[in-house]
Here is the input.
Amino acid sequence: MKSRIWKHLGVVIATLPLIQLQAMASVTIAHVENSATGYFVDSGGVNILTTGEVSFGFFTGAGPTSTDWQNLTNGGAANAWSSLLSLGYTDVRTLGTLGTGFDPSFSTGGTPTTNIGATVQNVPFASLPSGTRLYVFAFNGGSWDNTTKTATFGNATEWAAVSAWGHATSSQNYASPADSGTKSLQFKAAALTSSDVLVGSLVNSTSGIVATVPEPSTGVLMMVGAFGLVAMRRLRKV
Here is the structure.
């Protein structure tokens, strides 16, 4: 009887290291924005964002199709976050621990800053296997509540989405790392191309500057205003 107990106990002890290794299986995902790494600007393509913040994460399943991205763009910034969640988007902050240091907000104490970003540690490897495509989103309104692990980006009027993918140099792609690894989602290091900017526009590939897009209605008004100015000039010439 004792021999059986010791035998079972030996099995339990032998499996403890394996259990501990599985519990430690995790990765770290980071995103940093500044003049050295690249950053978001508003739809005018010049001014840094002064409100809102970034979100970075992944989609479960295959991710959005080209039609989905078009619908997201047409739906506008105010509806973007809820639409992303319905498509299976997960901010890595819901899974890991937010590290100290950079702030993912576009302002610190109400003061605009280009030195933003965050590091999320202890993201379970089981939830984010190696090679999973990662995304960075910018919203010019709203914020993330790290206590409730939820975001309120419904008051945003501009937004953008970036995901470097399909580059011949694998390190440039926004792919999650192997177990215990770290992946930093930077614009300049990824050598972004226009196809990497899923929502918004690439202002400068060398500097890694990405511009947000305004609400569809705002964009239409700007176009109408531009056509109106052209028409007025033509009439004056006549």
